């Protein structure tokens, strides 16, 4: 079967293509439209068909709309209830549900030749569950989904056997751990349904002094659900204005809520294991992007392995809807090959881009060595290589890289990106070296969805990679899967003794991650980045702008570690 999955209702519009049970392509619309999370002015802030992503997915496989057997839409309006009936204050809900119900017509208009009768509605949380369990390498697993909301619920717990889902529990709205965290995000002066990861980072700077009160408000129930009313956050801290300052009461509130969220998730995972006895737990939903909570589930529950889908938020429901529809049609789901499911260009095409932009470049025989030299000299590298990542994490396809040994490089990279200084950057580490540097977390960890404790003897050696609490959200790199990146890490270790570089996404604040070569060149031209890797090609700032002192020009002074 040829199945196109579509997410187009809440946020992060996306598309994914599954052919004969195998994932061929997946991409978020923001990578094409350059509107982060698909945001538009209210009320159309999330109701965006991923037209560009859908067309690209079809083009990748050489298919036409009329070649599709099924278009799977990751929301079922027949299961939805009016917002007021669910205890939600959402004046746009009736229009949203009308939009969803007319999805077949909208999709047919966006993809001329598509038969509207091929559109199938897949329940939102089933799509989340399938994006984890059916995309994972495990044919049998328990599954836990938590997010803001679906048709009428905010949670699903179940188990998969092959392509069959058995639902064991769900939680009806208005109780929602995702909406609770979204509300806190807004109270702390960040963008709701967008900046929740900032709250997780801020929590590390506080103390959980409100935890006992939150335990009285938020907790699990005997049936596998929970209670999670949204409190008046002002009882603990006034609304924060995002003026660049942070800490104090706001950090304490973030820490308290984060701690209670972790406890509840651990309890929910234990409840599932008590009923399934499974070895593996798969997870999706926006809450599954909370890597600190994921790590506690791995450490404190009986599950031997926890597998989180790298595009765990709503973007991933396009993938899950497609996989579930394929399984329903008799195809055997094939585990996803990794997160690199987006666009790519041949080496010659990349060279043509550079020549067309009149950008001087070289194609070094030893690219890994030249990049390692720049990094060892404390330069910043933009790294653009292979297919772009599906999901919010930069995993070595669209990354900014720097030396981890200079503590000031944390502030430096945050300045390059124009973002808050309390936010950490992530270490990228060779998979065969990770265990000697990081502990107390699952290995390998290729998707940057868990936190690990940095061993004490490494904390000063890779100071820029260590968060204030002594942890790091690592990405392990398998050179067999990412050969160019693996060679660079080996070369960097030869020069510095460190098999680690620090990595953050190749974008600046408020903009989607770089996706095509034009995006990469725009960033390189506007940000203090010393060199840009474009596939096998290397662009140096000194060559592009005639600056002999380009490498390390914006680095803080200090001795090499």
Strand content: 15-25%
Number of domains: 3
Radius of gyration: 23 Å
State the CATH class of the largest domain. Answer: Alpha Beta
Cα distance spanning the termini: 55 Å
Secondary-structure-derived class: alpha/beta
Low-confidence stretches: 41-45, 547-561
What would the CATH topology of the largest domain be? DHBP synthase
The strand line-up of the biggest sheet is 19-15-20-14-13-21-22
Query: Can you tell me the CATH superfamily of the largest domain?
Result: Carbamoyltransferase, C-terminal domain
Using the alpha-carbon principal axes, give the shape: globular
Task: Please summarize the sheet with the most strands.
Answer: 7 strands, mixed
Write the layout of secondary structure elements.
Elements: E1 2-7, E2 14-19, E3 22-28, H1 30-33, H2 51-61, E4 70-73, H3 93-101, H4 103-110, E5 119-121, H5 124-133, E6 140-146, E7 153-161, E8 164-172, H6 177-187, H7 196-203, H8 211-217, E9 219-220, E10 226-227, H9 248-276, E11 280-284, H10 291-300, E12 305-308, H11 316-328, H12 347-356, H13 367-376, E13 381-384, E14 398-402, H14 409-417, E15 426-430, H15 434-437, E16 438-439, E17 452-454, E18 471-472, E19 475-477, H16 483-496, E20 500-505, H17 517-526, E21 531-534, E22 537-540, H18 541-545
Parallel strand pairs: 1-4, 4-5, 6-11, 11-12, 13-21, 15-19
Antiparallel strand pairs: 1-2, 2-3, 6-7, 7-8, 9-10, 13-14, 14-20, 15-20, 16-17, 17-18, 21-22
């Amino acid at each position: 079967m040829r199945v196109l999955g579509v997410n187009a209702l809440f946020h992060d519009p996306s598309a994914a293509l599954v052919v004969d049970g195998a994932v061929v392509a997946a991409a978020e619309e923001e990578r094409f439209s350059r509107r982060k999370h698909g945001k538009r002015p209210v009320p159309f802030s999330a109701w965006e068909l991923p037209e560009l992503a859908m067309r690209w997915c079809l083009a990748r496989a050489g298919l036409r709309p009329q070649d599709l057997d099924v278009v799977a839409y990751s929301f079922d309006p027949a299961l939805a209830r009016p917002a007021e009936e669910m205890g939600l204050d959402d004046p746009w809900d009736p229009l949203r549900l009308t939009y969803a119900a007319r999805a077949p017509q909208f999709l047919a208009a966006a993809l001329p030749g598509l038969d509207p009768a091929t559109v199938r509605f897949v329940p939102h949380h089933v799509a989340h569950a399938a994006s984890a369990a059916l995309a994972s390498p495990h044919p049998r697993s328990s599954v836990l989904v938590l997010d803001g909301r679906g048709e009428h619920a905010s949670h699903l717990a179940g188990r998969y056997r092959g392509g069959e889902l058995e639902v064991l529990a769900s939680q009806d709205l208005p109780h929602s751990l995702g909406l609770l965290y979204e509300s806190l995000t807004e109270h702390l002066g960040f963008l709701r349904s967008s900046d929740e990861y900032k709250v997780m980072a801020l929590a590390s700077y506080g103390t959980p002094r409100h935890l006992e009160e939150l335990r009285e408000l938020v907790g699990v129930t005997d049936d596998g659900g929970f209670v999670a009313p949204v409190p008046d956050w002002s009882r603990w801290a006034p609304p924060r204005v995002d003026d660049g300052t942070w800490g104090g009461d706001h950090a304490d509130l973030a820490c308290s809520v984060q701690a209670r969220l972790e406890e509840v998730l651990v309890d929910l995972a234990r409840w599932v294991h008590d009923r399934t006895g499974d070895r593996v737990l798969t997870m999706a939903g926006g809450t599954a992007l909370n890597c600190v909570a994921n790590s506690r589930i791995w450490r404190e529950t009986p599950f031997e392995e926890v597998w989180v889908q790298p595009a765990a938020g709503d973007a991933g429901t396009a993938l899950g809807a497609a996989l579930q529809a394929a399984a329903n049609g008799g195809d055997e789901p094939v585990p996803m090959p990794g997160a690199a499911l987006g666009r790519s260009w041949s080496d010659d095409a990349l060279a043509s881009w550079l020549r067309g932009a009149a950008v001087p470049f070289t194609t070094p025989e030893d690219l890994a060595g030249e990049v390692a030299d720049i990094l060892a000299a404390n330069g910043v590298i933009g790294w653009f290589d292979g297919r772009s990542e599906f999901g919010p994490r930069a995993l070595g396809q669209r990354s900014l890289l720097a030396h981890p040994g200079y503590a000031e490089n944390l502030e430096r990279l945050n300045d390059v990106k124009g973002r808050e200084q309390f936010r950490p950057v992530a270490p990228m580490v060779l998979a065969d070296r990770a265990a000697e540097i990081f502990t107390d977390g699952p290995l390998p960890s290729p998707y940057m969805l868990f936190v690990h404790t940095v061993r004490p003897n490494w904390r000063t050696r890779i100071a820029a990679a260590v968060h204030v609490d002594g942890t790091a959200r690592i990405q392990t790199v398998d050179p067999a899967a990412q050969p160019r990146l693996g060679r660079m890490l080996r070369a960097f270790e030869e020069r510095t003794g460190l098999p680690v570089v620090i990595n953050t996404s190749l974008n600046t604040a408020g903009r989607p991650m770089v996706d095509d070569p034009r995006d990469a060149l725009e960033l390189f031209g506007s940000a203090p980045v010393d060199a840009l890797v474009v596939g096998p090609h290397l662009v140096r700032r000194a060559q592009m702008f005639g600056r002999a002192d380009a490498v390390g020009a914006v680095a803080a002074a200090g001795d090499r570690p």
